[in-house]
Amino acid sequence: MTPPPTTLLTAPEKSQVKAKSSSCGCSSSSNTADGLDEKMRARIEKHPCYSEEAHHHYARMHVAVAPACNIQCNYCNRKYDCANESRPGVVSELLTPEEAAHKVLVIAGKIPQMTVLGIAGPGDPLANPEKTFRTFELIAEQAPDIKLCLSTNGLMLPEYVDRIKQLNVDHVTITINMVDPEIGTKIYPWVHYKRKRYKGLEAAKILHERQMEGLQALKEADILCKVNSVMIPGINDEHLVEVNRVIREKGAFLHNIMPLISAKEHGTYFGLTGQRGPNPKELKTIQDKCSGNMKMMRHCRQCRADAVGLLGEDRSQEFTKDKFINMAPEYNLETRQEVHAGIEKFKTELQKAKATVTAKNKVVDSPKILVAVATKGGGIVNQHFGHAKEFMVYEVDANEAKFVGHRKIDHYCQSGYGEESTLDNIIQTISDCKAVFVSKIGNCPETELQKAGIQAVEAYDVIEKVARKFYDQYLKQQLA
Asked: Three-state SS for 392?
């Protein structure tokens, strides 16, 4: 991964847009928006999970040092592993704290945009406190500019908030799927607490009480808390509005409502019993219901517990133990600071470009449309249609282009040729979008998209600028 360009469009990049493939082959809405003081902005500006803007530019990595877990979730099975899969709890190999620290130093040199080290499993970090905190100690000593963060189910959180604060871990995520223990009985078969296993309503009550106690303790310690909630249709979907209200009152900074990942091959209880996950429209509806109450995270990729790279990409297979263990650490604070300075300069240019397309006077009655964007990051339309593994989805009206989610797809381009069945699935995935923005697209997929009522727009520019231009043209056509 190379640093971003210092200008938004270079001459070579502009020329790329002009080339047309003839084959079938292949105002910011971030967390730094108004309402945050400068101190808070500084705390999140380089954290790709806590800042939507940061996730375009900065990378994160997770180290898998915490194998044990103290609760069972009906959507979790940590034994299954596929290198191409991205879901929480999945890892290819476990690391010792020393191996993890070595890996961090290697990657911090090779990916200087990496700013955050998280421990998220494959079990629960606080069910493995010695390994978790030893890892944090080693990294804090050797790479002081890297932010430390952990994700937990919250069962043991109240015991360790002081230790978390002492280690300067400034970001903690708690997975809270319910605030009603009756609903919790449908999600958690058991909880292991103080050397005893609890089941049913008693288990759910213990977990709920501990989560609320931990959330309150984080607030009192001035540690930023993100709450993850897994949306499970028919079980907690409508209840998540109440979850949102409660966590807001108790001081959570950010709410991330994620779709249930449920497939039979994962071997989870929900997968084996046929419990479905929400579709994109259902997910967006619940997120929208909660968005007026507190900041919503919509750019989560439900990362593996050993993920490496930008959100939306996973380079973990480049740094398996047999590879990184023999690599010399290349961590260099001065080099990293130079790269980060370049990123911040680029972000400033990006903000200026976005400002030119922001409506000065709010339009009250403005129809909203969805558009899909192929991007490799940087807040720019800069990816070939056939190379995309996901699309970022923006909701556009006369006032703004607002990021509302992402949708994963299979590669259309396979060995230089397009797969017809894959294209059908892609079109279905973005069927509610009026356009798809790409750096290039072949004639065949462009034609099929057009038949489905989706316009392919070739561009290499700031996403918001492309969205504004398309929206204006779309309105003219609608009024013609």
From this structure: strand
Say if CB 75 and CB 118 are below 8 A apart.
Answer: no
Do the beta carbons of residue 57 and residue 141 sit within 8 Å? no
Q: Which residue has the tokens 């009206």?
A: 397
pLDDT digits (tens, 9 = 90+) for 57-106: 888 889 999 999 999 999 987 664 444 445 565 567 889 999 999 999 99
What global pTM score does this model have?
A: 0.77
Which residue type does 263 have? A
Report the distance separating Cα 446 and Cα 448, nearest Å: 6
Domain ranges across the chain = 39-325, 360-479
Q: What are phi and psi of 54, to 5 degrees?
A: -65, -30
pLDDT band for position 438 (50/70/90)? very high
Of 125-129, 341-345, 376-380, least confident by mean pLDDT is 376-380
Q: Give buried/exposed letters for 458-474 (b at 16+ CB in 10 A, else e).
A: bbbbbbbbbbbebbeeb
Fill in the amino acid letter for 256.
N
β 417-418/413-414 pair status: antiparallel
**Minimal CA–CA distance to 258: which of 224, 233, 223, 292?**
233
Q: For residue 174, what are its two tokens?
A: 């708690």
- Report which DSSP code applies to 403: E
Look at the alpha carbons of 229, 233, 239, 245 in this order and tell me if their dihedral is positive or negative.
positive
Q: Can you tell me whether residue 122 is helix, strand or coil?
A: strand
Q: What angle do CA 287, 116, 178 make, to 5 degrees?
A: 35
Fold of 360-479: Nucleotidyltransferase; domain 5 (3.30.420)
CATH pick for 39-325 out of 3.20.20.80, 3.20.20.70, 3.60.70.12, 2.60.40.10:
3.20.20.70
Cβ-contact 172, 223 below 8 angstroms: yes
**Do the beta carbons of residue 243 and residue 178 sit within 8 Å?**
yes
Q: Are the beta carbons of 229 and 243 closer than 8 angstroms?
A: yes
**CB atoms inside a 10 Å sphere around CB 76:** 25
